[in-house]
Amino acid sequence: ASVLRTKIDEPNVDNLVKAGSDEAGTAKATFLCLVRNEDLDGIIKSIQTLQETFNNEFNYPYTFLNDDEFTEEFKKGILNALPAKASVRFGKIEDSDWEMPAWIDIGDYQKKMEALDEQGVGHAKQLSYHNMCRYYSKNFHHHPMLRDYKFAWRVEPGVSFYCQIDYDVFKFMEMNNKVYGFTLNLYDNPLTVETLWPTVMEFVREHPDYLHENGAFEWLKENGQKPDNYNGANGYSTCHFWTNFEITNLDFLRSQLYQDYVDFLDQRGGFYYERWGDAPVRSIALALFADKDSIHWFRDIGYSHMPYTNCPKRDEEKYRAQCVPGKFVPWGNLEAENCQATWIKYVMSEDQMDLY
Ligand code: GDP
Ligand code: MN
């Protein structure tokens, strides 16, 4: 945690596109909000702080997706909350992309989720949550409304952005060949991903050529780094990018490699027979199949999704930080769920470390 309390003035590159310059706002990129009609108030709260800290200057478009039709009330509410110049689209997800696939045995699913529920696993019996995790893992990047975009910044209801961002985050991704951007790293509940790692290893044995020579493998493995009560899952540390904030390079997700990977997992049924989250599924793919130098930790972006916060210490006058620097959780003893230290230990290079 001490590293987080030192001042963050990043990214440390000399090609940042600043607000107001000709190139600002020119990346092929969108905010992506997968929400229900009843999430209206929550998503308005999120996009208001996003507009204030970033997008009033860059004017990137919003794409809203739903497995149901958006109501007129929802659409009006969003348009009223955004500046008149904002570009906004509302889309529906095909049932065939969203719903439980035919090869899942419903009785088996119900029995297994009954058991997970009894062990206290959240959302185990909520079918829509399983569908959502599968959709974010396997299908969102193929939605026709995203076809012309190269980057998507996921935004969820009820989150906050705290610090002014004075450069074009999407152009940073594009100009520096980034495949993924994250803010927070957490351990997962091993009960949700018991067979995920062994299943991925089967896939890797079929496709050894897919492994990236500069991958972040060590970060994924159980290295004995976890505190008490945080057990790994059959070789996987369970550390993952917390995907409620993620900036994805859609070309990576639309690649044959990623699609083969997620199809393989899907066929095994773990989105239903277990409660595989899109976060561990995505994180494992990135750490195995992408160049670790193309995965960027946005330590400078102040962000919170209950109950965790990425609150960087910044030049306050310039960036107006409104959270407590270095504080990962506002209360309680959840600090042990934080695995940012393992990303630093196993993935960051020495010259990156010097910066911190
Ligand atoms: P949590 O953060 O893991 O508790 O999950 P959330 O409830 O925040 O869901 C993750 C994202 O998926 C949020 O953007 C939700 O609005 C969205 N989401 C979850 N379930 C559904 C659903 O059934 N339909 C739609 N349209 N969106 C959903
Ligand atoms: Mn959420």
UniProtKB/TrEMBL annotation:
Domain of life: Eukaryota
Positions of the catalytic residues: 246
The keyword Ligase is annotated on this UniProt entry: no
GO MF annotation terms: alpha-1,2-mannosyltransferase activity
Membrane topology: Single-pass type II membrane protein
Record localization: Membrane
Coiled coil stretches, renumbered: none
Keyword Cell wall biogenesis/degradation among record annotations: no
Keywords annotated in UniProt: Glycosyltransferase, Membrane, Signal-anchor, Transferase, Transmembrane, Transmembrane helix
Entry GO terms, CC: Golgi apparatus; membrane
An annotated GO BP: cell wall mannoprotein biosynthetic process
Family to which the UniProt record says this protein belongs: Belongs to the glycosyltransferase 15 family.
Name of the protein: LAFE_0G14026g1_1
Shown segment, full-protein numbering: 119 to 474 of 474
